[in-house]
Amino acid sequence: MSATTPIKLAAQQSISCLKLSEWRSLIIALVLAITIASLMAVLGERIERTLLRQGSDILGADLILSSSRELTDNSALVAEEMGITSSEVVQLGTMASSGGNFLLVTIRALQNTYPRGTIVLDPPLDSEIPNLGEAWAEQSALDRLNLKLGDQVTLGSTAFTISAVIKSAPDRGRGFISFNPQLIINRQQLEQTGLLGPGARLRYSQLFAGTPEQINALEQSLEQHLKTGEKLTSIASEEGQQNSALSKASSYLRLGALFALLISAMTIFLSLRRFTQSQYKRAALLKTLGVSDHQILLLYITQFIFAWALCSIAGVSLALLLENLGLTLLQGVLPQPVPAASSFTYLSGPLLGISILLCLGLPSLFKLQKSNPLQLIQDQTASLSWGSKLPYLIAIGLLIISTTWYLNNILLTISLILCLLLIGGLLGSFGAYISKQITKKLAPHHPMGNLLLSRVQQQQRWYRVQIPVICLLFSLLSINLIALNDLLSRWQDQLPEDTPNHFLINIQEWEKDDLQVLLQQNKIDNPLWPIYRGRLNSINDLPLSEALTKKQQDHPSLNRELNLTSTATMPAHNTLIKGQWDTQTKAAETQDTQPASVSIEEKIASELGLKLGDIVGFNIGGIERKAEVQSIRRVQWDSFQPNFYFIFSPGLLEDLSASYLTSFHLGKDDASVSRQLMETFPTLTLIDVRQILEQLQHLLTRLSMLSSLLMLLTTSAGLILLYVTLTQELEQRRYENALLQTLGASQQQCRQLDRMEMGLIGLISGFLAVVITEVSLWPIHQQLLKLDPVLHPYLWISLPLLSCALFMLISKLSHRQQSLAKSYNTLISR
To answer: Do 52 and 235 form a contact (C-beta atoms < 8 A)?
Structure first.
């Protein structure tokens, strides 16, 4: 053949093959694969960028360098050289006064406006930061100080005029100081307030905003020169519910894209096998015309490339339409404008499409070029030798690389792919065997039993491929749905309706009893937690310099005093993972003979190398106390409940002075309770976190809607591909049904035989899919979604029954009635 002959012949063959159901199924599957991959990649990236930008807006920057000491100008100069916007913020807690009223507030002194986010004021002002002599305050501060716009408030030795009310603002800071009523002043006036003297608890922050590439480069540069006490914070490293929800949503987006990719790949794989099987005689005929093995391979590769090019155009066009539709549906949910995706992302669908097509198609084409002219008169297929298995191994390797790129987690990718492929292959053989045994038992008891047994025996080889593929399809859809449900349930559990939205701190011993009475009168029965301020100073009677490595000595918990507590009952939002909880009371004077116990949070125990039986020593107000590590707990830090690194057994700390803390929920109609508390106990600090909870609830609502939309798209794609796969399989039954009808079988009997076979395969596939689902969910929950794995008993009943009913329904909808004349035509066409 000439150089142009394969191209011309491939084009003609592509068009003529449209008459074949295998080629049409392949085209449909490839279009869907490119559409889904492009849509998931583009829509997922744009939504993820939007959510990350929203997180940066709440944080006030893309990157924050903070310290309790004043920062040098070096970081700002480096950022300026890189073209990154920066601004300095100083935060401190202090008392604000007006007349005879005093209130603990948090001051934020701004050098410039925040690089990310917007300060919303009432009334709106033109200035980006307060003018000299002015302050902006939250409404809660004005209410408690009995102030209004135009009044003056004193901070330190300087009076400021309230010029605006803060409706919302980025960067509330971290810790309890962030929950205080907030005031914003000009950075230039901070020194003249006299609040920067010895003992002031300041937090200096340098805020940066730029492109992701700029921020990554700046972060790497700053990490190399971090000083003691300095810390870098970004939306990716920020702890708490906001980042937890964002990271889980981002993981779910990648998981949905991966599953859509695998679903499409499985359907392409089935279509390719059927297509190449139908092309053996054509390839053999071409060989009789003088076409070489190499030219046959080149011909079909060119045909695949033609199909890929047309499918890429159609798939990307459909993805763009669905992308606009999806963003339109989320217009009222996502902050506008939605950032554009990168240019490469729009090509990800076609690139993945050609990768899937060639990876899964080349092994079959290598096998196809081994056809011989004898296949024109004998219905034979080439056996799969060990030499031809190499392309399949290469295909699996390329599939692992593709999924690693999607998930950005090679350990999870390998475990997931091996779990799905290896277990799927084993269950395929097991499913084929079970189908044969079931039909053997059924044959004597049903009129169609012997015909069904004959068909099942004939299709054993195909079942070994078909059953695992359908199992994987159902398991992927089940994993996707269950992962979403578990994710949404976790989000809902994080913020139930009675989530505490008020904290009371600085409760003194003489106020405790009267406060509990007042709280109980208002139907608030939450415990009061004793708070002791202490510093860890020894482990197993060794100073920290000897007990810990140099890296461990730089742990943030060792550079400050920790909030310690003691209780006989483990907090409900903590989970015991090692050891036993100690409820016995052990006084300080008895610890030489009976050492007291302490329970430690698992993360700090791991980072400091603490284990059960270790003796930890604390300095609490100049007094030494030691305790034995008797249990390790997992703490739900995002529960909005009081949480502690160290919880001591009762008795050890009771002789030391302590303040108390409690949290509780107040509804919108319970404002009188907070006023009564402050009037009765003016020295207490009441922290209202309702604004933060509302922000988180709004964010979680958006993430829930987004995840549900992606679940709908993935499930729809899976059902479409399932329909294509089964109708293609039923198309292969037309020849057998035609033969049966010429031998006297009725159309009704042929349809019943098809439905019985499909129902049996659906029942077996559904049951085996449950096994794959439960095994695969274990690493997904642990490594990707960071959730505790659980079994799903309802799945063992519902999925097999649902898959059986679905298979029988598709068989009924897809079955084509054939008259005797049409059956005869089908026979002679073969």
So the answer is: yes
